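# step 3/5: fold
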Amino acid sequence: MSTAMNFSSKAFKPRAPDKGSFPLDHFGECKGFKETFMKCLRDNSFDNSMCRLQSKDYLQCRMDNQLMAKEPLEKLGFADLKETSPSPEDKDAKE
């Protein structure tokens, strides 16, 4: 009885990720956001639902620095989070 395996019947064909490449942050442009997110995860027993704001800020930084394709935050699952930084109009109204 032969136990040889026949791998020629199915060839593995790699494919690109659905969202494209995710380049490394070689210059550390978003390092502070990443560190804040990782600290939040550690402080919350790696429950990512507790760190959604930090995750949003990190992804926004990556988009702003062309480290990932720009996407509406709603498509990334952050539709329920309001913008936390005041808009220029809000700043002018307070002065």
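# step 4/5: annotate
The CA atoms of residues 15 and 89 lie 45 Å apart.
# step 5/5: archive (pending)
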